[in-house]
Structures are given as structure tokens and as C-alpha cells.
Amino acid sequence: MSATGATAHAHVGHAGHHELGFIRTYIFSTDHKMIARQFLFMGLFMMIIGGLLALVVRWELAWPETAVPGLSMILTETGGILEPSQYNMAFTMHATIMIFFVIMPILAGAFGNFCIPLMIGARDMAFPVLNMLSFWVGALAGVLMLAGFFVPGGHAAAGWTSYAPLSAVPEYTGVKWGQNLWCISLFVLGISSMMGAINYITTIINMRAPGMKLFRMPLVIWSLFITAILLLLALPVLTSGVAMLLFDRTLGTSWFKPSGGGEPLLWQHLFWYFGHPEVYILILPAMGIASEILPVFCRKPIFGYHAMAFSMIAIAFLSWVVYGHHMFVSGMSPALGMAFTVTTMIIAVPSAIKTFNWLGTLWGARIRFTVPMLNALAFVSMFVIGGLSGIFMASTPVDIYIQDTYFIVAHIHYVVFGGSIFGAFAAIYYWFPKMFGRMTNTVLGHLHFWPTFVFFNLTFFPMHIIGVGGQMRRIYNPMQYEFLQHQQHWNVFITVSAFCLGLGQIPFVVNFFWSLFAGKKAPLNPWNSNTLEWTAPSPPPHLNWGPTLPMVYRGPYEYSSPESRDDWLPQTAPPVTAAGARRH
Amino acid sequence: MTPGLLEAPPERGPVTHRPNGPVPPPPPPTGGGDGPEREPWPRRPALDNLRLAVLFLIGSESMFFAALIAGLFVLRLGQPLWPPPFQPRLPVGVTGVNTLVLLASSVTMVGAVRALVRGEENLLVKRLVAAAGLGALFLVVQGYEWARLIGYGLTVSGGAYGATFYTLIGAHAAHVFGALVWLGATLVLASRGRFRHGRTAPVKACAMFWHFVVGLWPILYVAVYLL
Ligand code: HEM
Ligand SMILES: [Cu+2]
Predict the structure, then answer these.
(1) Which CATH number does the domain A27-535 belong to among 1.20.210.10, 1.10.3210.10, 3.40.50.2300, 3.50.50.60?
(2) What is the pLDDT of residues A118-148, one digit of tens each?
(3) Is the ipTM above a cut-off of 0.90?
(4) Residue B61's domain is classified under what CATH number?
(5) Integer Cα distance of B134 and A282 in angstroms
(6) How far is the CA of A409 from the centre of ligand 1 (A)?
(7) Residue with CA closest to ligand 1 atom 21
(8) Where are the beta strands (DSSP E) in B92-193?
(9) How far is A360 from chain B (nearest CA, A)?
């Protein structure tokens, strides 16, 4: 033990002496903070592509079969008018990119890497080289996914769920290499996420600073811990599913093709067995982020710390037994459908516990409406709407009516945009000072938040209405259906709102890059937070801490504690009178 | 009340409870002042990083194979006859013997770790070589059987039977190959004397993964060949 201590020392002592070259510092870096930044940039870059694809989809739905502005340069033959196959490609790739290459890299990749070592008081991840590999393998997956746009036959077009046999037989869609690359990319991503997950779990279990007991960990670390476990166990199921799909397409196996004795429903089972834990992979880190930010700007302890941690554990367990709610109409015995309805409704209970605890934290607080706080509040309120629509759909009789309509699309976006993306924005604004050493601009932050919040709701709330009105998902031209024509004005309204939502992201981009280079230098602890990362310099140096690791004496949320004159009490603050506190 | 006059905060006794729970007792003494002896973590972790990581790797891989095996059962339950008629039969006997070969490699691996713990370096290297040799023999026999089966007309594209067989057994073979590469690297390092002075974790981690790959095989053998 003392030997490891000595090497750690030698390490810290050396870090200042020899500088790493450009490549080792910025590209093949093993520093968790640099890898976090790399994941963040990758996610934000992909968000632009995914967002533009969404706008293409929206244009088509509002003004079907008209030229999409700007696309005439790419679609030269049609002068910018989308063909049905291209429309399918656009929505498929929008969802695939947003889920696998935006939210996962930003929430689990960037903030997982950034927060875990800093907030548990470690010098780096348990396996820094594995961490670097995880990023670069993930980046390779991203490149493979983007490469699909340039192959003959176009990119995958069977939806992000890629239901077989549509996806399994190239002749059905005419897509050959696009879907293959989709499979290969997700296979590679599975390897990347496994490496990341193993690293996160090992780090959290073994590398916590002295005194950082499990139940003194910040809730965001709890959420990332549970997310990593879900990643570890859910992604391999998708990995084997996409491998089978790829073999069906290239080697002629018949896992999912009835003609050779295969079973198309098997794909749905494998996909959703992964898919439901996946949606919690997308939301749990955002829940952790909100639990981190609310107490800081309420200056109050989080309400129900243990309930928060245990409800996340409960969500993780239950998420394995609810996946059938995605398959109510795929053919399943009514008894099984009933069982999935019940389990799905039960999973809403821990979600509700979390929501009430957030409200309890807000209750009676003198809230500081900073930009990260506004985004965290948006997360809480939008997640409530998305969670409630989820309960509607969990009920089989209701779902039979609304499945595959825009009601589902509304649900998805309330939880994934309203939940995960607002959570990601909250995290970016909150940790930017620590991550890059500079403050973001508050005015631009408000200019970003308010249009995003307003136009988000204007875009996605009406989708509930047209969904109940019968508009199906994934249709090329709603005007083809007589029963949908009377609500076409809603499609126009949604599309205009969506374009405004897109424009609302410009202040964010400006803010991000302006602050990166010209923002005010960030102090050590701009928000007066308790957690450990704010005791390291902004940005923290390689290996994070000086010669000694921080020592943790208390939980992370002791705001306005009677023990301190300030309204905050860092985790590193020793008890006032150690002997006295013990005696009583 | 004169504004601007600050009142001193009232005297309070020591705090024992806070809204989020009782005040934690002060941390254990760390052996002196605030100095470096506090580092690292005073509590020794139950399992070192490497073995913990391999444990989770095994968890992840188990889910991968569980999905494949579930797929196999779904497909075969959908067929009236299994194995389907007019398809070659799998070599149950040869593969049974081969199973024993693989299990034997696990036994030598246990022996290798024992030698490692006792510090008998030569024995460690010998036993690692034996384990790797048995693993390689298993792969060679498997490859030979595959070639024969393809000769008899069992192909990946010939229907569910061939598809499931080649996917599952191929996935396992790929894992044996990967584990063999890992074992080879460990072997090279062991022969260079890298695991002296109690640095045993890398070998133990490698052994864990090896046991996983070996332990998986009887399950696959029963599911694919026997049932
Ligand atoms: C209270 C919690 C929730 C409940 C009860 C719930 C329920 C459901 C149900 C029943 C469906 C299937 C609807 C159908 O296809 O007919 C569904 C779809 C979906 N949910 Fe949730 N959900 C909840 C939370 C979440 C969260 C937190 C996320 C993501 C962060 C999420 C993401 C999705 C997505 C992406 C789909 C659509 C998948 C697709 O068909 O493309 N849900 N949800
Ligand atoms: Cu679900």
C-alpha cells in the first residue's frame, strides 16, 4: 500500500516536469477531462447533423413533396424534393444519431468521464488507456454511421428500431450497405460502451477518496453508476441482435427471416430487451444532474437523498421487466400484455418518488434562477409531462389505439428532449466553468434557454393532439390520408416551431465558443457548491489534485447547514468540534 | 431594529441531526496530520481494479451469449422438427472429447495460479503453456469439424439450423481465440518474470476470463449439440 502511495507521489511530482506533446494532450489523451471534452464535442457535432435531419423530416410533413430549402444542392435530380425512401432515411438517421451519438456521448460519455473521478476524489479513471480506447472506438462507430450516407442505396431506412424482416432483407428497401453499416457501427459502439461502463463501475467501486462512502456520493455519481450497469448489461443484447441482423443480410443466415425458419419477432424481443433499459440510460444521468443542480441553487439539502438513490436502483431493476410495453400490438398473449402493463405502471412509482423529491427540494427555497437552474427546472417539468404520457401508453387498451401515432413521438420527445437534452444543457452550463476554466455568458444563456423552452413545447405538445387525431408515425405525406387532412395546419404549426427551436440553438453555439476563448475566467467555486470537483482548480490539472487526495467528511448536499455560517459546507470541511459531535 | 447592524449568530449546541440525516461521526484517524500517509484509500478494496473489471466484463459477455442462446431456443421452438430433416448431424462424440480438452485447460489454469501464488515461476510458465496448448488444440479440432460439416452440406445460409450453429459456435470460438491471445501475452510477460513480488493480479484476471470462456462451453455444448 505504501508502495502505491509512493508511486502516486512520484507521478504527481513528475506531472509538472515533462510536458506531453500535442498529440498526447489533445488527441490520444488518457486524461479523463480531455476525453470528456472529446465526447462533448463529438456529441455536439452530431447534434447539428441530427437536428438538421429533423428539420428535413418536419419540412416534408408540413409541406409534403415540395423542395426542401438548401437540399437542392444535394438532391440535384429532384431539385430538393425528398423521395419517400429518402424521407425514411432521414427519420431513421435522425433518431439513431440523436440516441446513440448525441445523448449517450454527452451524458454518459462526457459527463460520466468528467464527473466521476472529480466528484469521488480520484486522480483519473481506473483504466485511463481503456478510457481513451473507449472514446476512439466510439468515434470510429460515429464515422461508420456517417459513412452510411455516402454509400449507394442510401443509409438505413427501417427506423431506429430496424424491425425485421424489413431491415433483414435488402431487397425490401433497396438499402444494402447503409443498413449493414448501421449494424456494424452499433456493434462497434457496443464495444466502446462496454469499455466505458467497466471503467466507470470499477472506478466508482475502488477509487473513491478517503471518507467518500457510497452514501456520501453525489447523486449524479449514483446515477452514472447505475447507468453504467445498465450499459454493461443491456448493450450486449443489442450487440448480439445487430450481429444476427448483419449475418442475415450478408451471410444469408435466417435468424429473422421466416423464409429460412427464422422469427421476425425475435428481433423485437432482443431490441426492446435492450431498448427499454436504453431509455433509462438516456434519462438517469439527466436525473442525477438535476439532483445535483437543484440543491445548489435552492441552497437546501436534496430532499430524500436515500430515496433518490434507491429509486434509481429500483428503476434499474424494473427496467428489465417492462420491455413488452413496446410490443403490445406485435402479438402477445393478453395475460402477458397485462403483466407488462402492470410492471410498466410500477416503474412509474420510483420515477414519481424522484419527482416529488425534486419538488420537495424546491419547496420553500429561495431559488436562484441561473441558467443551469432554469434548464434543470425545465428538465423536471418536462419529464413530468413525458412520464405521464408514458402511463397512458402503458395501458394496453389505450396503447392499441395510440401506438405508432404522433402521441408516441410526443412522449419520446418530452422525455428525451425535455428530459435528457435539457439535462445535458443544464450540465453544460453548470460544469462549463470547471471544464474549460471560463464562465459562460448569462445573457446568451437566457437567450438560448427561453426560446428553447417555449418552442420545444410549441413543437412537441401539439403532437399529442395530432397523434390522438390519428396521424401515424413515419409517414411520408399526411395529405394522402383524408382523415388527416383537416389537421394539417398543426403540422405546419409544428414545423414552424421546430425551425424556431433550431434557430434558438444559435445563441448556444455562440455562447459556447465565445466563452471557450473569451469568457470571464472562472473562479474555483463559482456556484458555492459542496462537491469535490469545485475544490480542484478550474480547469483541473492532470491528475486533478495536489499531492494529497481530498478527504471527505460529509454528504454532498449540506446547504444552509446550522453547522456553518456560510450557506454551504463543502464535503471536505471537517466537523466543527469533532469530539463534541461524537459525544451527542 | 436598526438595519445594517449585524447580529451575532445565536449560540448553538453541537449539531447531531440535519434535514438529510444524522451528522456523520468524525472520520477515523488517519495516522497523523494531514500528510501524504492519508493516501491512498485507507480501506483496502476487496478486489483489485483489474479483477473487478474482468468480473464486469464477464457479466457483459454473459448477456451477449444469453441473447444468442435465447435466440437459438426461440428458433428451434418454432420448428416442428429439430434438427430439421435432411441436415447433417453434429459430431456429438468428437466434440464431447473436445469439451474435456477445454475443461482440462481450465484445470491447468488453476494449477498455474497456484504456482504463481507460491512464487514458483517455472511451474507457472509451464502450466500456462499447457493451458494455452489445450485451448489451441480445442480450436484446431473445432475448425476441423467445421470444415467437415461444411463438406457435408451444413451451411450458414441453409436455414435456421446452420445459422444458429455457426453463429453460436463461431461467437464462442472467437472468444476462445481472444482469450488465447490474452493468455499468450500473459505467458510472455510471465516468462520475463513480470509477476514477481506479489504482482499477481494480471495473471489472476486472465485466468478468470479463461475460466469464463471454458465454463461457457459446456452450456453451449448442451444447448447446441445435445438438446
Ligand atoms: C414513467 C415512465 C415511462 C413510461 C410509463 C413509459 C412508457 C412507454 C410506453 C408504454 C411506450 C410504448 C408506446 C408504443 O410504442 O406504443 C414508450 C415508448 C417510448 N418511450 Fe417511454 N415511458 C416512460 C419513460 C420514458 C423515458 C424516461 C424515456 C427516455 C428517456 C422514454 C423513451 C421512450 C421512447 C424512445 C419510446 C419509443 C420507442 C419507439 O417506438 O421508437 N420513455 N414508453
Ligand atoms: Cu420502454
Answers:
(1) 1.20.210.10
(2) 999 999 999 999 999 999 999 999 999 999 9
(3) yes
(4) 1.20.120.80
(5) 44
(6) 9
(7) A390
(8) none
(9) 12
